[in-house]
Amino acid sequence: MSLDRVETIFSEQLSEKDKLGTAKRHELVITGIKLAADGYGPRYLLAKQGSKGFLRMNSNSYLGLSTDKSVINAEAKAAEIFGTGPGAVRFISGTYQPHKDLECKLAEFHGRESALLFSAAYASMMGVLPQFITRDTLVVSDALNHNCIINAIRLAKPAKKMVYAHLDMTELNQILQTNSGRFKRVCVVTDGVFSMRGDFAALDKIVEICKQYEQGYEQGIITLVDDSHGVGAFGQTGRGTEEVTKTKADVLIATLGKAFGVNGGYVVSSTKVIEYLKETAPLYIYSNPITPAEAAAALITVEIVDSIEGVNKLKRLRELNKQLRSGLIQAGFETLDSEHPIVPVLIRDTAATSALVKHLFENTILATGLNYPVVPKGEEEIRLQVSACHTEKDIDYLLAVLKAF
Predict the structure, then answer these.
(1) pTM for the full model?
(2) Has 229 been annotated as catalytic?
């Protein structure tokens, strides 16, 4: 047996990705962190970059909790008690008290009856969504939904999938009205906050439309929301899109690896739904959970967000976000209006986007460029992400470098 022939094919495909500027395998390696000093936030050291410290504007750790001393201490203490790994999947012997404590706290935080941990938010969606889809189910999805939703739908093989234009409630209404009586069940699935743009789903309108047409489907309409970028970073108290829209989904999926600063994913819903998922979701049943130490650390971060300290961090985040957006507009850059810390800089040209990312890197700023075909032609952008551990001086420096481009 030989890999020679298939490796030739792989080489051609890799070269094409390099040519298009969409390759992701050329990863920067972080070797250390310089602590905040002189009015600036932390700086990140990279392999092959010597002692230069980089301002990180492409991190999902929106509240800076991944380096919080109380969180680190909680993880270290739990690792000393329980060890570094769970040692088994949960139904065998991999469930530890920190897992149960965290699930109770997450259910309480979101005002739900129950919660269930997964190894990652991607695994959560892949494990959860297919369990709601049968051969008699219509799935309705936003056009800009995350890759995990797209692949979960493919895995589930519903009777039919329909996609409405991004945030287009008129089209969602038409889909549900037109298909009334044709399917037993409908799953309407959407991101809460959309990762490329920082805009968010009108969950209140979605739920209102679903209620209007629910009687036309024998098993009802179920709303599922992945708010991985929203929870912990959006809303006055960090409850995400549900808080901002004052509406709850039937099933909410989110992550512990972004604003909560640790690792893992989870789902919250009714007790009956969670019990059903424990028996049916393969990515829960047959995959190890996050470590007990990670669960203990995540419990501390959820408690921080659910406190005055968390409210203050979120307020700080909104202030820095406002400073950056205002500065971008004053400098003549195009962005979108939002209180979410994802701040897109719309360049609308692949070559210019790549050139600007290079310019930022040369000036010790880490930022992510999104080019075609990752985004449609004309929608090329640089995605900046604000963190509560940034400072006003960081934002001023970033804006000065952008203006000099």
Answers:
(1) 0.95
(2) yes
